[in-house]
Amino acid sequence: MIELGIHEIADATGGRVLGDTAARVTGPVVIDSRLVVAGALFVALPGEHADGHDFVAAAVAAGASVVLVSREVDAPAAVLVEDVQSALGALAREVLARLRAAGPLEVVGITGSVGKTTTKDLVGQVLAAEAPTVVPQGSFNNEIGLPLTVLESDASTRYLVLEMGASGIGHLTYLTGIAAPDVAVVLVVGSAHLGEFGGVEAIAQAKAELVAGVRPGGTAVLNADDLRVAAMASAAHGPVVTFGTVTGTDVRAQDVRIDRDGHASFTLVAGDATATVALRLVGEHHVTNALAAATVALQLGLSPEAVAARLSDARAVSPHRMQVTERADGVTIIDDSYNANPDSMRAALRALAVLAGRERRSIAVLGEMLELGDDSRERHDEVGRLAVRLNVKLTVVVGDGAWAIREGAMMEGSWGDEVAHVADVDAARTLLADELRPGDVVLVKASHGTGVWRLADELAGTGVDA
Description:
The chain folds into three domains: 4-83, Udp-n-acetylmuramoylalanyl-d-glutamate--2,6- Diaminopimelate Ligase, Chain: A, domain 1; 104-313, Mur-like, catalytic domain (UDP-N-acetylmuramoyl-L-alanine:D-glutamate ligase, 3-Layer(aba) Sandwich); 323-460, Mur ligase, C-terminal domain (Protein-Tyrosine Phosphatase, Chain A). α9 links the parallel β12 and β13. The chain has a nine-stranded mixed β-sheet, with helices on both faces. A six-stranded mixed β-sheet has the order 17-18-22-19-20-21, with helices on both faces. The chain has 16 helices and 22 strands. It is globular and about 70 Å long. α12 runs parallel beside α13. The protein is an alpha/beta fold.
């Protein structure tokens, strides 16, 4: 965050100064009073379970120099606005404009039904080796997380990498209104949030808002392997660069190979240049994410050799995303439990099959995929059928919302002890305690709201707070 006076914050947000007119923000912008340090700006957001205004006193006691509020509070210095969330976005917009005016700063925006967070992490690791880079924590990709990430930038920042999520039409238009990207990446149009959007075509329309929101002169980076994404070229106002595995793309992966541990390697082809990439991430689906990251870096001037080397060194950063843990008892845990939709379920199950191979027993612990609307039963049924086709030895279905996975598995030919349906995470824990043995490979996957990620933490022994 750049240093700002209280009047500058009021001007940016359309707010009114209350209290100390000489107050200045010299620290970070935070929405959690427990994260306040001296000189911070505390943003009192109203929440579903708590109201930030109730924590203003704690924030001031911890050293917040200014608080951003929508009602008058007892604080030495405050900016009073009509809507705190909108004011947060407006402040981020102003700070980014100042930073862009002061020096070179490239903004990368990334969206897609799957792969956003992993691609963001890959781009961040590749660019951070080049120059100071700001990357969001976890999945800070909405109307709160994105401006908070923007506000982490300062005069030294050369690259700002932003993950942009959407669960409805207009969401990405709002986010690009805060931070129009110089490079916009669209990965995949899939069935995440299908119930909220009402159909895949509506999802494609929403994702295309990122392309339309590119900064003048900016570049759209599109996945040519996804026809709906490739069609977004018509929404671009500037250059379009494609990536994928099909012939004719600008940046291509060829000779893709998967080793016994599930790691993909491929030849990166960009024009006449080639370089070898050997990923440390688990799962063939990460080839798409790596290609997207490579294309971004190449657009920003990095060499193919540097890009390939840095992608090969990159590791999983955000928790609960294809994190593999080898336990002392010989059990392997694949934790992909941060979220789930039909596309990511298929990718994770295929990775499980590769890691287990023919020698080890594969176990899939699967919870509900939320926000699928009327398609929920059919989509869960398809997951169960795929588990059988991939020869998963035991499928543990967690919760009533996921019961159609069991139904699909049984209709595909899974009987007896090959599929079990349990009521909740506690029941799954009990079953696995009796069932697991050395050599097992266990995938844990479900939507975040199911709480199945807590079981993944216990099984892996990580205790990561999601």
